[in-house]
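Before the break, one more example. Copy the sequence into your notebook; we will annotate it together after we see the structure.
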Amino acid sequence: MAKAKVAKCGAKTRRGKPCQHEAGWGTDHVGEGKCKQHGGRSLRGRAHPAYRHGKHMMPSLPPPIDIDRWQRFQESYDP
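Here is what the structure looks like once it is written out:
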């Protein structure tokens, strides 16, 4: 009886040969992608600790200018 062909990780090992682990070995997506030894378990998107969501970032726009105060300043200035 022939053995069913299982997808392999295929990433290059330190010895330069393809990894022989099953695709997705040690991850939550067994059967596809890289094994956990070659980056298959790396977090992506919102799950990644370095995800930048903007909560702690500076606002992109400067604070609004008080137009009335600016006009009073211009009117009081007499060259």
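The mean pLDDT is 83. The longest helix spans residues 67-76. Try to locate both features in your own notes.
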